[in-house]
Amino acid sequence: MGKHENFAPRGKVYFGTFDRVTIGGVAFNVSMSNSEGYLLKTEDADGLTQLFPYRDLSAHSEAGNIKVERDFYAPAAAALKGRHTEFDLRRLQKKHLEKVGVRLSYSFAVEELYGNGELQLTYESIGKAFPQLKSKANVAFRDFILTHVSNKKTYGGGTCIGIADASSTSVLKWFKAYRDGGIAGLVDGRWKSGRKGGRLCPETEALLQKCVAGYLHPDSPTKRAVVADTIEIFRRENRVRERARQSQLPIPSGNTIRARLREFTPFEVTLHRKGEDAARKEFFPVGNGLQLGRLLERVEMDGWTVDLMTIAKSTRLLEKLAPELVREMELDGGKKRWHLIGAICCTTRCLVGVTLSKSENVSAAIDCLQMIMRDKGHHADAVGALSPWHMHGIPDVLVTDNGSAFANYRFIAAAKFTALDLMRAPAGLPQLRGTMERVLETTSTNLVGRLSGRTFSDVVQRGDYPSEARAVNTVEDFATMLVRWVVDVYHNTPHEGLGGETPFECWERLSNLYGVRPRPDLRTQRIAFGVELERKINKSGLTVLGVSYRSERLGSHFRQMGSCSLQVRWLPENIGAIEVSLNDEWVAVEAVLPEFQGRTARDWTLCRNLIRRGDPNAREIARSVVAAAFEEIDRMNAAAGQKAGILSEQWTKDGIARFEQDLGIGFFAGTRNASQKTASQYGTLIDVGPPSDPGIGRHKAEQLDALSSEPKKNDWKF
C-alpha cells in the first residue's frame, strides 16, 4: 500500500442542482446539501430522502459506483437566458419614449389585474375591465414620464398628464410582448428610422467607396494621397461622361473623403494593411482573464514535443512489461524525443493529467483525458513523492487545440460520453489556452533545461550542443523526474496567478468548499475510453486477448442470431468485464474467471508470460493457474511499472490483434476443458465440483453439474 492510499477520501463530491445521480443502481435527484453531505431523493413514488455524507460519496466515486447525468431535470425554460433583459431607454428620443411608456403602463395594469384574478387574457375580458385598466395605466404612465422624460413637478391648475385609449387587441399584444421580451419587447424599429446616410447620388457613392477602399492596401498609402487620388479619379470620370454627353458627378470634398476613411475601424485597417497576425497581436483584448471559481470548471489540454533526447529503454521497466507491449511502445533502446500531453485545471493551476507517448496520437490523448478523472496517488507513491497527487474529477469544459489527436472522433466521442463540454480554440490563437501554454514553457525551462541531452527548440539555440551524445536518461528516469517535479515542486510553488497561493493549497481549499464531480462509473469508463473492437460470438461466448466472456444475455442473443460479429468496448485498465452492443444497447459481460476483476491488460500479459514459461504447451488455462500467476505478479515489486505510469501503453485495435496473434492458437483463459496436468510451477489443475452444502438445492446442483460438464455441439451452456 502506498503512503497516501490509507488516507480518507479528500475533498467533497459536487452535484449540480438539476443532476440525476445513480448510486448502486438507484436513481436520485438532488434535494440540498449541507456541511455533512447531500440529501438525495429517490425517483420512485415514495420519494424517500437519504443523507449521503461526503466521505461515503468520495469512496463511491473512487470505486466507480456513481453515475451523474448532468442537468437531467433542468427545465426547458432554463435555456431562455436573458429573456427579460432590460432595454436602455436612454437610446430613445422623447416621442418614442412616450410610446413605450403607454405600452408599458397598460402592460403593468394587465399584469396586476391578471395576477389578482380580476382579468382574463381575452379580448372580451380586457374590454369589460378597460376603465379600471386605464385608471391604473394612467398612474403608471405619470410615473414613467416623470422618471424618463421630464422630472418637472406639476402644480395646481396645470395640464394633467394622461394616457390615450387603446383597443383590446393592442393591449393584449403589448402585454404578451412585455411578458416574453421585457421592455425590449415593447420597442419597435421606428426609433431607428430617419435619414442617417449621406446625400450623394448612388453613382457618386459607388465610385467614392471604390476609391476610399484603396486605403486598405498592403502598400499603406496615406490619407492625403487617397484624398488626392479620389478627386483625380472623379475628374477623369467626369471627362469621360462629358464626351458621352452624360450628366456630371459631383466631386466630393476632402472632408467627405476623410469622413469615409474614418468609417474604417482600426482593426480593419491593420488587418488589410499589416496582415492577420499583426491585427490579432495588436487588438486581441487583454483583461483580467477568465473569472473561475470552482474546481475543474475549465481544463485546458495541449501537447508538446519534449526538448530532451532520452534512451527508450530501461531494464527495470522491461521486467514489468510484456515483450509485445515493449514493441508497441517502441522501447527498443534507441535515442528519441517524446511527446507530452498535459491537462491543467485553470482555476487552481494543478496538473490533472500527464502522458508521454512516442508521437502525438489519439490513444495518448484519451489516456490523458481518462487520467483527469482518476486519482493519481499511486504514481506519486511509486516515485517517492512527498505530496499526494489526488486531483481528479470530471471537468465542466475541456479546451484543446485543433491537433490531430484532439480532432479525432474517438477523442470527441469519449469527451461527449463523459458529459463534459468540449471546446477547440481557433487555430493561431494560443492565448485562448494560455494557461497550459505557460506551464509547458515552465516545464521546458525549470525541468528539461537542467537535464543532459536537451535538444532545444531550434538549431540556433542548440548550436553545437551534442544532444544525442549527451542522452544519458532513460524514459523511465524522465517519467520519474517529471512526476516528482509536478507533484513536489510545481504544485507546491507559490503562483502569481493565485495571489501567492500554491496550486496544492488552492485545490485543498476549493475542494473542501465546493467539491468536484465524481469520476464516471465503470460502465461509462468502458464505453467512453474502451478500445473499439469487433468480435464474433460463438457457443463459448466472446474472447478478447485470450480471456473468455459470457453471460445469460449474450447466450440468448447467440441462440436467436447464431454466430455473428458484435461491437465490443474493452478497457485495458480493467479487463474483468467488457461492453457488448446487443440490439443497439450496451450490455456488460463479465469474464468467466473472477480473477480478472480489477486486473489490467498489462497484468494479464505478464501472467500469460509466466504461464508460458512454466508450460510452453499450455493452451486452455484453468482458474487455479491464473490465480497462482496473478499472486506471483503481486509478490513482485511493481514500483518500476508504476514509475512509468504516465507512459501511454498504446492499446489499439491493431495492437490487440498483434497480441492475440502472439498468444498462439488455442491459448484461452476461462474455458472448462483445460488439461488436468501441467508441467508449470503452478502444480496440478483442480476442477472444483459442486459444494456439499445440503441447502444449495437440487436445481442449483444441476446447474453446477452442467458447468463442469463438456458442452455439447451447437449448445450454449452457462
Summarize the structure.
With 718 residues, the protein is α+β, with helices and mostly antiparallel strands. It has 26 helices and 20 strands.
What report would you give on this structure?
- This protein is an alpha+beta fold and 718 residues long.
- Helices cover 39% and strands 13% of the residues.
- It contains 26 helices and 20 strands.
- Strands 4-3-2-1-5 form a 5-stranded antiparallel beta sheet, covered by helices on one side.
- Strand 3 (37-42) and strand 4 (49-53) form a beta hairpin.
- Helix 6 (202-212) packs across helix 7, helix 9 (266-274) runs antiparallel to helix 10 (276-283) and helix 22 packs across helix 23.
- It starts with 19 loop residues before the first strand and ends in a 10-residue tail after the last helix.
- Mean pLDDT is 75; it is low at 1-9, 77-86, 309-319, 452-472, 637-644 and 672-718.
Instruction: Report, as a whole number of angstroms, the end-to-end distance.
Output: 37 Å
Question: Number of DSSP strands?
Answer: 20
Q: Strand order within the widest sheet?
A: 4-3-2-1-5
The coarse silhouette is extended
The rounded Rg comes to 36 Å
Biggest sheet details: 5 strands, antiparallel
Oligomer state of the chains in this structure: single chain
The structural class is alpha+beta
* Average pLDDT number: 75
User: What is the helical fraction, as a range of percent?
Assistant: 25-40%
Beta-strand percentage? 5-15%
- DSSP summary: helix tally: 26
Runs in which pLDDT lies below 50 for 5 or more consecutive residues are 1-9, 77-86, 309-319, 452-472, 637-644, 672-718
